[in-house]
Design brief:
The protein is α/β, with parallel strands linked by helices and 327 residues long. The strands form 2 sheets. Strands 1, 2, 3, 4, 6, 8, 10 and 11 form an 8-stranded mixed beta sheet that branches. A 3-stranded mixed beta sheet has the order 5-9-7. The model has no long low-confidence stretch (mean pLDDT 89). 27% of the residues lie in helices and 16% in strands. It binds uridine-diphosphate-N-acetylgalactosamine and manganese (II) ion (MN). Uridine-diphosphate-N-acetylgalactosamine (UD2) binds next to strand 2 and helix 6.
């Protein structure tokens, strides 16, 4: 002790290893205080006090594009569509991934609706729009896989929400977070299907999975070109990897689907039905682990992060017959 007191008084203190430890601690504390305030914040309440419950999505027609709305710069949302609750530490860190091509009015309506919805849930979130470049056949699975890969480069998200651009949630008690044990199917009741589950294994629309769960299923198949069955394929992957799907109550998990026609370039593909039958054979070699794409650009728009992705082209029919497609 005497030695210690002596050390305090002496100038040698500042050269001793003890002082280095002190200095490091001071730096760490000031970093935590000034640079990373969220680490010191109390966790947000289990149930957000901002929730308002049922809120039918009232759309005014004609829908406006984002540009027509002035791309609505918001004071609360940071560039790239990123948000953190200002006064508490969020319980979920969620990346919302939206596959996209040529639906500007749907995108405007979605962003207009989703930002306030997610903020009332006190989430830390970021919205990623994954746009398929070019006019080739649409491939939603590849867009989702690429979106997850890019989102995980930015942060360690605790949850990924896979989201059709045309679905508007109508009750903010339907939380956009993940359960640690099971993937969730969030779009249970859609107006288009009379607010009833379409069929027992339905897994399209809006789905929430942790990155770990997504890796376990090996993500979406890369081989489903055009409309249909890529969602049923993911359902099977969940089961094959030993998990089960949970759903929030039908009274809460309500959505409006903005009316639309089948898009050009996303025609129903009968081959997808055959591919679905092969899921058990293909799922471990085709998916997140075999994904190829080119990121053409990444732009931080005021309300979303825009990823422009080249997913490659569907092989011409004379080359098909096996399941591999050149990227
Ligand atoms: C169902 C599923 C959807 C998907 C699809 C079959 C529900 C509620 N939804 O939706 O998840 O499995 O069937 O493939 O069950 N998209 C574009 N531009 C295009 C084409 C598609 O942005 O040119 C995106 C957009 O996010 C759209 C999504 O892909 O919401 C699904 O396509 P859809 O809305 O045409 O399919 P739909 O309504 O039959
Ligand atoms: Mn749709």
């Amino acid at each position: 002790m005497g030695h210690c007191r002596h050390l305090w008084r002496s100038r040698r203190l500042w050269r001793s290893p003890f002082s280095l430890v002190l200095l490091a601690a001071a730096f760490a504390l000031s970093y935590a205080f000034f640079a990373a305030p969220s680490a010191l914040q109390a966790e947000c309440p289990v149930v957000s006090p901002l929730l308002i419950g049922p809120q039918p999505a009232n759309l005014t027609f004609p829908l406006l594009t984002l540009e027509a709305m002035g791309n609505k710069r918001s004071t609360s949302v940071s560039a790239g569509g990123l948000y953190r609750p200002p006064d508490c530490r969020a319980r979920h860190r969620t990346a919302i991934v939206v596959p996209y091509r040529k639906r500007p009015t749907h995108l405007g309506a979605l962003l207009d609706h989703l930002h306030p919805f997610l903020q009332r849930q006190q989430l830390h979130y970021r919205i990623y729009l994954v746009e398929q470049w070019g006019n080739g056949t649409f491939n939603k699975g590849r867009l989702y896989n690429a979106g997850v890969r890019e989102a995980l480069r930015d942060a360690t998200w605790s949850c990924i929400v896979f989201h059709d651009v045309d679905l508007l949630p109508e009750d903010d008690r339907n939380i956009y977070g993940c359960r640690r044990d099971k993937p969730s199917h969030l779009s249970v009741a859609i107006d288009k299907f009379a607010y009833r589950l379409h069929y027992p294994q339905a897994f399209g629309g809006v789905v929430a999975m942790t990155p770990e769960q997504f890796r376990k299923t090996n993500g979406y198949s890369n081989q489903f070109w055009g409309w249909g069955q890529e969602d049923d394929n993911l359902w099977q992957r969940v089961i094959l990897s030993g998990m089960q799907v949970v759903r929030p109550p039908v009274a809460i998990a309500r959505y409006k689907m903005i009316k639309h026609q089948r898009d050009a370039g996303n025609e129903r593909n009968p081959r997808n039905v055959d591919l679905l039958r092969r899921t058990k054979l293909d799922w471990s070699s085709d998916g997140f682990n075999s994904l190829t794409y080119k990121l053409l650009f990444k732009e931080l728009e005021p309300l979303y992060t825009h990823l422009m992705v080249d997913v490659g082209k569907k092989a011409p029919s004379y080359l098909r017959g096996n399941t591999t497609t050149p990227a």
